[in-house]
């Protein structure tokens, strides 16, 4: 083939590749634009919405891995992206109180959906030192509550995108089955435990404790470290209950937990209620609770 024809063929092929790339990019942008843009506060919610919405939703999370929802502040990039959002699913974590009004001002068309207002037990039954029971937002630590949240997510998506209601219905049904299996698994793994007192660094497991017959005792509340007199009481209680393990959360300071563990000669296990892979994480959390409560 003459050199001139070769050059023409090469240029044609290059042009075709560029054209196809631009077409793919265009289709990708159109597809992305057709998605429902959803914002959530924490990683487990992102998982819930993705389970129900599948490829029909673009789910973005405010509080990322390792970040603390009690002290988090949205980035300028997140605030800008929220301007185009369709739904915000709130869950009751502390930073929402300070920021959701501002977020709503930036996007008057934003639908804000409360994920836990219909769950009756908003106050965890925590038996901590010298404190009145206070609000525990960690409703998702009970799989049965997540079943209710998933149904709410489904109904909210259908209101915006009714033409795909059958997709949301089917996805929510599959997710519900997984959650029911998880609930049964947790029950079976924990039903024969004789020790049932959970000493935790932060009171994140109230709903898990209530659902499966445990007593949660937290070392700190509202980010405040334990006082000396309360520490003595807690250590006494832990000895009475034959506690061998202290459960800590990676987003919070574990200094006081280490002091308690040292006094009890107990081990420390890390549990994360804010992990993305909900079903897998709750399965692992249960295994760690069982490990800690059977430790000698």
Task: Explain what the structure shows.
- The chain is α/β, with parallel strands linked by helices.
- It has helices spanning 3-34, 43-53, 76-81, 94-106, 143-160, 165-190, 206-212, 228-240, 255-264, 278-294, and strands at residues 36-40, 57-61, 87-90, 111-114, 197-200, 215-218, 245-248, 267-270.
- The chain folds into three domains: 1-33; 34-123 and 135-185, Nitrogenase molybdenum iron protein domain (Rossmann fold, 3-Layer(aba) Sandwich), CATH 3.40.50; 192-294, Rossmann fold, CATH 3.40.50.1980.
- Strand 5, helix 7 (206-212) and strand 6 (215-218) form a beta-alpha-beta unit.
CATH architecture of the largest domain: 3-Layer(aba) Sandwich
Rough shape?
globular
What's the β-strand tally?
8
Helix segment tally = 10
Following the backbone from N to C, one meets helices and strands in this order, namely HEHEHEHEHHEHEHEHEH
CATH topology of the largest domain: Rossmann fold
Strand order of the largest sheet: 2-1-3-4
Largest sheet: 4 strands, parallel
Helix-strand category = alpha/beta
- Overall number of structural domains: 3
Low-confidence stretches: 24-31, 127-133
Tell me the distance between the termini.
82 Å
């Amino acid at each position: 083939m003459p050199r001139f024809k070769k050059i023409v063929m090469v240029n044609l092929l290059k042009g075709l590749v560029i054209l196809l790339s631009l077409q793919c990019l265009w289709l990708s942008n159109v597809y992305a634009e057709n998605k429902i843009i959803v914002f959530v506060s924490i990683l487990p919610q992102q998982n819930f919405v993705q389970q129900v919405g599948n490829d029909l939703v673009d789910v973005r999370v405010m509080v990322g891995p390792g970040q603390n929802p009690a002290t988090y502040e949205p980035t300028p990039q997140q605030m800008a992206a929220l301007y185009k959002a369709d739904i915000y699913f709130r869950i009751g974590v502390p930073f929402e109180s300070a920021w959701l009004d501002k977020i709503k001002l930036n996007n008057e068309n934003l639908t804000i959906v409360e994920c836990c207002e219909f769950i009756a037990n908003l106050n965890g039954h925590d038996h901590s030192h010298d404190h009145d029971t206070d609000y525990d937002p960690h409703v998702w630590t009970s799989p049965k509550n997540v079943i209710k949240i998933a149904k709410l997510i489904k109904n909210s998506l259908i209101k915006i995108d009714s033409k795909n209601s059958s997709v949301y219905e089917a996805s929510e049904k599959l997710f519900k089955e997984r959650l029911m299996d998880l609930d049964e698994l947790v029950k079976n793994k924990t039903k024969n435990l004789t020790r049932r007192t959970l000493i935790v660094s932060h009171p994140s497991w109230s709903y898990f404790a209530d659902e499966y017959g445990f007593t949660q005792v937290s070392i700190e509340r509202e980010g405040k470290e334990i006082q000396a007199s309360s520490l003595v009481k807690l250590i006494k209680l832990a000895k009475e209950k034959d506690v061998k393990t202290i459960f800590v959360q990676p987003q919070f300071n574990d200094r006081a937990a280490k002091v308690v563990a040292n006094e009890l000669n107990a081990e420390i296990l890390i549990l994360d209620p804010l992990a993305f892979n909900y079903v897998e994480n709750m399965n692992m959390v249960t295994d760690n609770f069982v490990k800690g409560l059977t430790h000698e």
